[in-house]
What we know:
Layout: E1 2-13, E2 16-27, E3 31-36, H1 38-48, E4 58-61, E5 64-65, H2 70-75, E6 77-80, H3 92-102, H4 109-115, H5 131-145, E7 149-153, H6 161-176, E8 180-185, H7 188-194, E9 198-202, E10 205-208, E11 210-213, E12 238-241, E13 249-252, E14 258-262, E15 265-269, E16 276-280, E17 283-288, E18 291-295, H8 299-306, E19 311-315, E20 318-321, E21 325-332, E22 335-340, E23 347-350, H9 352-362
Parallel strand pairs: 3-8, 3-9, 6-7, 7-8
Antiparallel strand pairs: 1-2, 1-4, 4-5, 9-10, 11-15, 12-13, 14-15, 16-17, 16-20, 17-18, 19-20, 21-22, 22-23
Helix pairs in contact: 3-4, 3-5, 5-6
Amino acid sequence: MSVLTINELERYTENVLVFPAFHIEIACHEVVALYSSMNVRNALLAMLTGKLPISSGEIKVNELSFANNRKGFLSKIGLLLLQDGSYERLTVKENFSFFKQLYDSSLSIDEAVRIVKLDLKANKRLTKLSLSEKRRVQFARLLFQDPALYIFEEPDQNVDLETKLVFHKMVHTLGESGKAILVLTGNMETALSVTSRVYRLDEKGLKAFDVQDTEEEPKLVSPEDADKKEEPVLSNTDSVEELENDEPIVQHVRFEKIPTRMNDKIILFNPPEIDYIESSEGQTNLYIKGEMYPTSFKINELEERLQTYGFFRCHRSYIVNLQKVREVITFTRNSYSLVLDDHLKTNVPLSKTKMAELKEMIGLK
């Protein structure tokens, strides 16, 4: 059964679309990351907590909606906001004692201290703690609450490595215990570090990222296993076609995704998603909605792979998606730039020799 169900939810602000109607479900044991801008995240959080009315669609937690059962709905959600406050004058243990009584929790204070690794700071006031340590106190608050659905907004932003490790271990433990977890973030590294189920939500809607764990090695099914009704896992460039004598013939097919690596995951992008590509000091990076993703391909290899998708080598160090170009700017007689159609109005350099080629491509004289 789904713990969180968001069905056909959409949001407009002053006649501007924040996000169109979308559907998502999170069940027990599932960890989902939603990658989005701050505006999208704020709107979604406000609708989840009842601060913004829902004019279209619905949100349910354990089949309860805010409109029909406000108290029951909110009691099922454990929410950690980026700007959550703390009881600064109380010690760590005093905070935990308050949380334990507030939520009538069976979790012991000593166990909570151990989980968030504040053993040496247990008797110190929060005013004496670092920002990272205060964040761990906030993690513990949700452990005492023990809701069905945990929602974390930018949980590891500006925190130290120990706090990140505490968070990752806590999410893993909560997922194993049957909790549903939603991580809201504008940082792809955060999203990929906690789960392989990552979605992007923006004005174009909800889209799942194609993520693979690099720890899993691809396997080829032998001809002897062909009768087991399992499809063989193939390389990116091969497909198998069975003949009457059961001997496979390998045929080359076109692979239409560009892989990038982040942490221990591989994320695959469709070419139209890419805004531009930059090569610097031997490293090639993809840029997508302001985020940078390293790739193992050389820029010459990407130029060849992406040419048929409308990409243009505008500079020796840059390839641009021409569908994303809004303006061509001439700074001087020999200096040009391409302005992309994104919220940053990104400038990509255009060399003099490539300017003539571009003019010919788009039919200008």
